[in-house]
Amino acid sequence: MAKRDYYEVLGVSKGVSAQELKKAYRRIAMKHHPDRNPGDKESEDKFKEASEAYEILSDDQKRAAYDQFGHAGVDGNSGMGGGGAGAGGFGNFSDIFGDVFGDIFGGAGGGRARGGPARGSDLRYTLDLSLEDAVRGSQVQIKVPTLAHCGTCDGSGAKPGSKPVTCSTCGGVGQVRMQQGFFSVQQTCPSCHGRGTTISDPCGSCHGQGRVEETKTLSVKVPPGVDTGDRIRLSGEGEAGAEGGPAGDLYVQINVKEHEIFQRDGRDLYCEVPIDFVQATLGGEIEVPTLDGRVKLKVPAETQTGKLFRLRGKGVAPVRGGGAGDLMCRVVLETPVNLTAKQKDLLEQFRGTMENGKHSPRQKSWFDGMKSFFGDMKI
Fold it and tell me: Most buried of 183, 267, 348, 350, CB within 10 angstroms?
């Protein structure tokens, strides 16, 4: 019977990546492995077929030959009784089992490459900025306490002139296997904690840890338009990994401090502008602040308190792109204080000229509504 197309066997397309190819093979191998299906001839055949397909397609040279010539180009390279996960021993089911869970949880030992040193922890630093610096961008120097590679032992943890030795418990693999029924489960080596090596003569500076406490001074470039909650990632500026492992990252968390004049809402700015009742009544020009300086704002006659005036383009250009927002000026009518006797007398004269309802329409409608409300109440 003619062989099926290897890509069809694994259920993938011809241009599939190596990572996706591996995932596809694992799914089939987990389902049809003979250890899980004892005595099931159909599952055994499917496992053999998938193993043969993966053996060819996971090898770049064999895959290229197969893509060009089909099965004829690789018939001499494949064989169901060969190495890898072929039918001879079907491969160890724990290898597939361990790899699947390693992918999900970031590799054996919690982010440690098998037999390799662990990556250092990520760090977070909260950077307080003024509104002006956040809007315009800035260059800021920060001091970050962290764990850095020990300079004496170059991060190895071993005393200069010596070096870590292969762990006798796991043989340098970093993991040991425990048999549970027909499952062979891998776990981190208890002696070397997954490193694959142990230190018999530790460094005196770091006491075998490979890391020392240090405060780093870093320069952070803050792009224009950032806002509270934005993060800047500095790759490799986190804690150094133990035993020479790679460093983590530093995340600079932006916090924009409160401003005495402006409040920010996304790309727009808001501010309150106090005006006296003469300006509100007669109208005129007032000066209002912006982040670029003062500008003139024309206030029409009979402006009421709370009125919003929009100054286009005087807001913030956000860090993720787009034009600047607007500045929204809310005028607030301020009642005069510390009046002289003459001023009070003038106001009394002015009040005598006011006709109820004609000059204060909102006040009249409010009182009319109140009368209607109490008139409808039955006590």
Answer: 267
- Mean pLDDT for 308-336 is 93
Write the CA distances from 93 to 36, 45, 49, 192, 202, integer angstroms.
9, 16, 16, 25, 38
Query: Domain check: are 315 and 351 in the same one?
Result: no
| Distance separating alpha carbons of residues 298 and 23, to the nearest angstrom | 67
The C-alpha atoms of residue 194 and residue 169 are separated, in whole angstroms, by: 11
Q: Percentage of the chain with pLDDT > 70? A: 82
Whose tokens are 């250092």? That residue is 120
Q: Answer yes or no: is 169 within a domain.
A: no
Q: What CATH code is carried by the domain that includes residue 288? A: 2.60.260.20
**Which domain does 315 fall in, by range?**
272-337
Measured CA distances, 256 to 127, 232, 318, 322 (Å): 8, 14, 14, 20
Q: Is the pTM of this model over 0.70?
A: no
Do 345 and 367 belong together in one domain? yes
Q: What is the pLDDT of residues 85-103, one digit of tens each?
A: 443 444 444 444 444 333 3
- The total number of structural domains in the chain stands at 4
Are 281 and 369 in a shared domain? no
Q: Alpha helix (H) ranges present in 58-189?
A: 60-69, 93-105, 108-111, 131-136
Residues in a beta bridge with 125: 252
Element (H, E) at 219: strand 211-222
Looking at the structure, do residues 26 and 80 belong to the same domain, yes or no?
yes
Check whether residue 129 and residue 248 sit in a common domain: yes
